[in-house]
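Input record (one chain):
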Amino acid sequence: MAIPQHILASIVSDGWYQKCCLCGSSPVQFHHHMIYAGRAVQEKFAILPLCPNCHRIEKRKDINDKLTLIMLNRATDEELRRYSKIVDLIGKRRILNQSSFSGVQINTPLR
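The corresponding structure, as predicted from the sequence alone:
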């Protein structure tokens, strides 16, 4: 799915998006990690930079959980409330932060 121009401009100028958020390598591809109402969420916190190798395995449960942790920690509570209709995303963030993934490096969160 194409990223809206105003979000893409913000992402391209943000150094955090220059390296893979999982392994730190580059070049990167932009991954829409959150689907809501059957569509990719077009918000900066929900778009993650992944190298081609990590992008290939993003559906693997352990990788997907790490990406969810990174994404949720980059979002503000207000942003998550907009999408927490069925799933309590703020609660999920709290649980993932207490899990074994709590050591995942998260650079410059947006919130």
